[in-house]
């Protein structure tokens, strides 16, 4: 054995592909399990997309199945909170059994500048919420890096 070589394995001495395959299978298992849990517990999570442009930030949230009056928007300094709440009740044909449900889900988006309340606009069409937040003259300053 070469005396210059240490007892520790080198970076490429071990085939890591079985470990990577196992980790990929575990990730897929948990991802699929949690997707199914949403339907089992009748949870309706929503996706949020944030796009930043030169003059504005556009926050888009997919809220299928919700009505406009079930959605609440709140501005708290540099944060936008989107909450959706659904109430429902069902009664069988005989009128003997009645079930009620209540579900609330929310997301909070933090921005690097205070959100101007008066200039921020929101619209909701076909299950898609769009919030347009203008960038006022934020106090961002880019610094030059000296050599």
Automatic annotation (TrEMBL):
Residues 37-147 form the SHSP domain. InterPro entries: A-crystallin/Hsp20_dom, HSP20-like_chaperone, Small_HSP. It comes from the Bacteria. Gene3D superfamilies: 2.60.40.790. Residues 84-118 are annotated as: Disordered. Coiled coil: none annotated. Belongs to the small heat shock protein (HSP20) family. This is Hsp20/alpha crystallin family protein.
